[in-house]
Structures are given as structure tokens and as C-alpha cells.
Design brief:
This protein has four helices and six strands, in the order E-H-E-H-E-E-H-E-E-H. By secondary structure, the protein is of the alpha/beta class. The N and C termini lie far apart (39 Å). The mean pLDDT is 92.
Length: 163
């Protein structure tokens, strides 16, 4: 087993997670269309994006590359609705209001392209305590929820909302 992989992600959180578990990696920058398809389930959506990122990374590398390429994606689902990354402050605050005092699902898919292509899906249920408007605004102002699925990150400052 190799001790190095390529990570097809722009996410600093994914780089940090690999570092925490001691996996050496190099980045390969990819861009994929993250639009949800009509009638696509949230699970199918995150698996498709993880695979697309890993495959795009593998395609971008030189033909002689023998290192695996890892792609991943995370989505938040509340009341059956997929909550993407907030476009702005108003959207982020609306997402936090929706999650406040509720239990929601966090779906994360990972895909690895090597000699074979594999993917896995993890589903977690996360319960938030009630979040008042001032807390939500302060959280947005911290910069932590920007560009994160569901407008929050419980591995960061958003952990304070978990009940």
C-alpha cells in the first residue's frame, strides 16, 4: 500500500483530515459541475460528485501516474431538502434557522481511483440546539461557515451548536 495519494479537492478541511491521520498527499486541482440533477437523491448526488472529482483528478494527471486519487463530497439534508453551500450571508442565516433545534443528516462520500475505482458513503445524524439570530450572525461573521454544505462545519466553530 502506498503512503501517498493525490487529493482532488479544494477543501482545507479534507487536507487537514488527511494530515491528522498521517496520510501524505499532494493536491490536484479539479473543477466539477456541482449542480444537482433532476430526481437525484442526496446520496446519489454526493457519491456522483466524489467520483467525478476523483476521476477528474486522475484524468488531469500524467498517464504514468500510479498514485491513487481521492475525491470526496459532503451534503447536508434537512427535512428531505438538500442544503448546498450558501451563496451569501442571507442564505447561510436561513440555513442555520432551518437547522436550529432540529436533527439533520450529513452525507459524506469518498471515492478512490486507482487500479480499481471504489466509493463509500457515510450518513450521520446531527442534532442542533436552538440557535438565536445573534449567534447565527456572529457565526457567519467568523468566516467559518462560508463555502460549507449547510452553512456550517461541526469540526470547527459550528461544534457549539451540536446538542
Amino acid at each position: 500500500m502506498t503512503d501517498q495519494i493525490f487529493l482532488a479537492s479544494r477543501s482545507p478541511r479534507r487536507r487537514e483530515l488527511l494530515h491528522q491521520i498521517g496520510i501524505r498527499h499532494r493536491l490536484v486541482d479539479v473543477a466539477v459541475d456541482e449542480s444537482i440533477r433532476q430526481c437525484e437523491t442526496p446520496s446519489a448526488y454526493v457519491v456522483r460528485l466524489a467520483l467525478a472529482k476523483a476521476r477528474a483528478g486522475a484524468a488531469k494527471l500524467a498517464a504514468g501516474n500510479r498514485l491513487p486519487v481521492l475525491g470526496a463530497d459532503t451534503a447536508v439534508v434537512a427535512g428531505g431538502e438538500l442544503l448546498g453551500k450558501p451563496a451569501d450571508r442571507g442564505q447561510a442565516l436561513a440555513m442555520l434557522r432551518r437547522l436550529s433545534g432540529q436533527t439533520h443528516e450529513v452525507l459524506t462520500a469518498v471515492a478512490l481511483v486507482a487500479e480499481q475505482t471504489e466509493s463509500r458513503l457515510s450518513l450521520s445524524q446531527v442534532s442542533f440546539r436552538r440557535i438565536d439570530r445573534a449567534e447565527a450572525e456572529a457565526y457567519w461573521d467568523s468566516g467559518d461557515p462560508a463555502n460549507k454544505a449547510g452553512g456550517n462545519a461541526i469540526q470547527g466553530a459550528g461544534a457549539i451548536f451540536v446538542s
